[in-house]
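From the pipeline queue, job 12 of 40. The input is one protein chain; the requested action is below.

Action: predict structure.
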Amino acid sequence: MKKFAFLLALALGFLFVVPAQAEEKDMLRKGVDRRYRLSKKLQSEININGGDFLGDETHNSWSVGAKYFLHINNTIAVGASYMYTPIYTDFDSTFGKTVKSRQQHFIDGEVMFSNDAALRAGNSVIEFDLFGTLGMGTEWINRHWEPVGVIGGGIIVYTPWPWFAARVDVTNYIHPTPNPSGDTINADINFAAGVSFFFPVKRINEEGGPVLSP
C-alpha cells in the first residue's frame, strides 16, 4: 500500500513545477519557453536500463530492460516496455515450493504523460521532463503468462547532446501470482536508471516552427 501511494504521488507530481523567480527568468527562458526547446513531435525514444526489483513474493533482484516510445507531441507518448528479472525467494516457503522457473519477464504497452521543466545550475540551465506512465501487458512467471497492470513515473534529464538523455523510472507492476491456495494479487516495484536516444532531432525556432538541427 505504501508503494502504491508513493507511486501515485510521483505520477501526479509531474503536473506541478515551481515557478522561477523574476531574476532567473532570463536564464531560464530558453529552458521553459517551448519556442527554444527541442521538439518531441513524432520523435522516437529508445531507452536501455537496469535496476533493482522488489516483489511482494520475491526478494530483491537485479533487472534489465528496454523501452520504445513514439512521442506524439511534447506531452503524450505511446510505446512498449520489456523487463527481465530473475526470481530470488525463500524456496522453502509456500510460494517458493511452487516456483518452476526463476525466469520472470514483463512485456507491456504504455502511455506516457510528460511535463517539461528547467532549473538553473550555476551559469547553466538543466532541461528535464517529469512524467507518469500507465499501461497493461503480460508477465511470464512459473512458465505461463499472467496479465499485468503498470503505473509509474520518473524523470528524463537532457544533456548538451540533443539526441541523448538520462532517464530514471519507478514502476509498479500489479499482477496475479500463482499460489497453492489460489492466485494472489501482488504489487511489485522496479527502480531503473538508464540512457535514452532520440531521433530524429528537431528544434523549435523562434517563430514556432520545427526545424532540423544541424
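Job complete. The first strand starts at residue 38 and ends at 39.
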